Amino acid sequence: MQIESRLIRIIADGNVYEKKDLLQYFTSEKELNKTINNIKSYGLNLIEEGNRYQLEDSIEFLRKSKIYDHLSALGCAQNIFISVKNIVESTSREFDTSDISTKEIKVSLAEYQTSGRGRQHRTWISPFASGVCLSVYQEVAYANFPVGLSVFIGIELIKCLKKLGLRRLRIKWPNDLYCNERKLGGLLVELHQSSSYKLVANVGLGINYKLPAIRSWEKNLDHKPIGLSEIKGSTYLNRNLLTAHFIHSITNSLLNFNGDSLRITQSDWGDLDMLFGKELKIQVGSQIIRGINKGIDREGRLVLETNGVAKTIVSGHIIDSSI
């Protein structure tokens, strides 16, 4: 993957490059052609005209130093170790949760994940540098069900994005972020035990930033995506600043989450839930459950009403709704 990263860094400015000039960085034309095909598989829109190559748009790379500067301005850069890589298997596997100590928070960032993970063992697909893919590793003092923590973080991220000028954002239980019924991103929260028997949260976040015009990579998705730049319109959003805000929101959520967190925000859920009051069909294991979405309980569990009887869902996949 090192050779792919090298080519992407060369052409990242969006300028036109002649094949003969690119060949000086490779051992043969065959190696260059193979590398070109590989980076196309990452979702990059590489325009080819004869022996000329140009990216559809220039790339704004994630920069560790810039993210630290933004975090300092937000007042939360202390004890945060950040790793930024071009290509990883998954940010959720970059650090060992058993090594996380009370005094530090680790954050893994990547421009592209070859095996990004979502809930219910689904794959998170995001073209190279088109979004923000990160995982936060942090010790937590309190947790009930991971779904409760996940719902709370999702709510706080919506608040964070609203402060940055984003509107019409909604949540699809438990933690998928939507705008205009198109998927913006999602969360995956896992709880582990460290070597010192403390509880450690591994919070994965994938948010679409600016999606390529060519959408061939969408064929493996079960939803229609949308990016922050499309929601925001012509107003520029700095990708490194956004990343710092996401890290700040998640680390604060993990620090402040307690038994009353969801009780306090429970009354606001109806305004955030894109499927509130809708008839849902949910797959729970091998079982299909149908009912009217009545919101969440104090643990973040989904409440479904079927024939006047309320049932709580801890974990499941919404496969149909009456939108």
Task: Give a quick precis of the structure.
By secondary structure, the protein is an alpha+beta fold. It contains 9 helices and 15 strands. The chain has 3 domains: 2-55, Orthogonal Bundle (Arc Repressor Mutant, subunit A); 64-265, 2-Layer Sandwich (BirA Bifunctional Protein, domain 2), CATH 3.30.930.10; 275-321, SH3 type barrels.
Describe the structure.
By secondary structure, this protein is an alpha+beta fold. It folds into 3 domains: 54 residues, Arc Repressor Mutant, subunit A, CATH 1.10.10; 202 residues, Bira Bifunctional Protein, Domain 2 (BirA Bifunctional Protein, domain 2), CATH 3.30.930; 47 residues, Roll (SH3 type barrels), CATH 2.30.30. Helices cover 27% and strands 31% of the residues. The strands form 3 sheets. A 7-stranded mixed sheet has the order 4-5-6-10-9-8-7, covered by helices on one side. The protein has a 5-stranded antiparallel sheet with strand order 14-13-12-11-15, with no helix packed on it. A hairpin with a 5-residue loop joins strand 12 and strand 13. Helix 4 packs across helix 7. The chain is globular and about 70 Å long. The mean pLDDT is 88.
